[in-house]
Amino acid sequence: MAEDLAGGVAGAAASVDPDGPDGVRMTWNAWPRSKVEASKCVIPVAASIAPIRASPSLLVLPYAPLRCKPPCAAVLNPFARVDFAAKIWICPLCFSRNHFPPHYAAISETNVPGELYPQCTTVEYAPPPIDAAAAAIPPPVFLFVLDTCLIEEELGFVKSAMRRAIGLLPDHALVGLVTFGTQVYLYELGFSDLSKIYVFRGTKEISKEQILDQLGLSAAGLRPGTAGASGYPKARLQANGLLPSGSVNRFLLPASDCEYALNALLDELQTDQWPVEAGNRALRCTGVALSVAAGLLGACIPGTGARIIALVGGPCTEGPGMIVSKDLSEPVRSHKDLDKDAASHFHKAVKFYDNLAKQLVNQGHVLDLFASALDQVGVAEMKVVVERTGGLVVLAESFGHSVFKDSFKRIFEDGEQSLGLSFNGTLEINCSKDIKIQGVIGPCTSLEKKGALCADTIIGQGNTTSWRMCGLDRSTCLTAFFDISPSERSSQPGSTNPQLYIQFLTNYQNPEGQMRLRVTTVTRRWVDGSANTEELVEGFDQETAAVVLARYISLKMEMEEEFDATRWLDRSLIRLCSRFGDYRKDDPASFTLHPNFSIFPQFMFNLRRSQFVQVFNNSPDETAYFRMLLNRESVTNSVVMIQPSLLSYSFNSPPAPALLDVASISADRILLLDTYFSVVIFHGMTIAQWRNMGYQNQPEHQAFAQLLQAPQDDAQMIIRDRFPVPRLVICDQHGSQARFLLAKLNPSATYNSAHEVAPGSDIIFTDDVSLQVFYEHLQRLAVQS
After folding, report:
1. Which of 4, 206, 440, 583 has the least C-beta neighbours within 10 A?
2. Closest Cα partner for 163 from 278, 259, 86?
3. Whole-model pTM?
4. CB 462 within 8 A of CB 454
5. Which residue numbers delimit the Sec23/Sec24 trunk domain (predicted)?
């Protein structure tokens, strides 16, 4: 068993891009034909998709796509059957016949357009703009919302991060500034003679209309430009990309024009001057500040890609979105309070942010949240806005911590390090007629476009075939869940098509501001009858299955009270093993699993112990943060969150993957643990002693210096390519921070078995079962008749 697992880890590291050219991974690559067969498969039929993943081989076509006749409207793709003589193509999804338009007259077997190349199952269309107004590329917009209820030192860190960001912004990007403490201050950057500020009370909810009235942007003054306020960029922009009225450039100015003014404002910015009585928290009106920011963007630039970047340093204690009272004797809500329904402000705050999410999605704008504080700031309540708008989220302990500083800088970088931030995305899913869509988990919002393809059961954002993603980037991932419901006609023998087809259409505004349409069409095989278990097994993807289950139970834990995730996972795993394992009834020793399933029990063992299921010891903010990242990252990254990777460095062998087990600890080894959120370099006892004696600085001990440096270099490589930037922990065996490693290891040696431990290794003080015991129980239960 252990050999299998180590081999699995090493094999996974060596393989090439697991997402393939399409960026689509499915739990099952051969699909059962009926609902009953699908339910026997235990793991839901789902796909993890990366809508705009960067791909070196991507073909970009400079014309508009050719679509099938409505209601299908699928785009022409390599799976379409083409009759070159009659100039007709047959849609693989709905089998309709479509005539090619006149400008395709020259096609033949030897001369086909790019979208029909067999290897181009993913293409991107870049149609030319219709007129000059559409050709005007809107500038990116950044509205900074800064918390000033901070101590001097923290505010200093915020200012230096802001100065660095302003220096990195493209010159034409529009920038605005809002600060908040007990009240909200909106700066009119366009008024250069002296600093002009609009102040809003932080105690009560302000409607969008009231905000606009106070700013002099109310409907009467703004009629000419708001033709498309409900969402897409219909608002006619002038040649300079701005609305006709001078309203926008009062509050949002090109970075090149306001760099000096902004730096001057930052120099003058003080911590919130409102007095804080002893025994009280500072009064902080985060909710009103975000309302003002959303209202301003909605009036000035509806439908244009814009980001509200909120830097929050503590909990909201007044006004809408409040999560705790100002009285320090009241602690911030914990998981226990939420379970007992004892968190008095929680539901009200979530409802407020839910409405804010609807407003931002309607305007097409994004909320990014950078929360840096030792206590909670309300990420759990704000999760709904960040996730619905496709925003970025970073949780750190201080604005001076590298997790915040380096992540914040990454948003504004371009070139190799750029995140590829894009705006105004919509995703449409179209599929063969026996497939229904249950919904999507991930950073998006349902557009409530109901149709024949919607399933009766809903998972996540459902009841639609189309989703809005106000913000998305190269690494954004969504999970789509499918339901198999064959119609009476298709289940008759003879009429069946052995292949099923699914098409993902993503319309978005790329980082350069151009509108693009990415089209990915995938095909998979139907498997008939319950006899063909081999075909199902051959098509099982255990990494994707583990990640999909983690996302699914995270959702269930949030939506359903009293949901027992551990028990649900155990039952599912036992059912899966008794359905697909090879064994003789009631003989645990005979139990074996196909290589496609062999690491799956280990994934489940680690998922049961992970922060997604065991919320004890994490605050609701941390849990919300971990789940938001789990829901938006690629399968490869999400697997690392569930089951961290461990590398071992020693004198007598090159760096190699090690078992995630306490037995991997040794006095003369260095271990590098990657849990996605943190990277841990762990020095064995002997190595730590030699390092403390300074052997690495002596010329005759070059090899030791290199051994110490190797994990540092590998850690930096991991950190450089990841967003949010992980926390780096450097620790020694038996040191206090060694807990970061010990918490993740399989407890094969505990205080009960201390007499069997190899010298120099370690034990874990726990009563948790080890992987070995877990696997023995699984074997026994799976073979029961």
Report:
1. 4
2. 259
3. 0.92
4. yes
5. 138-412
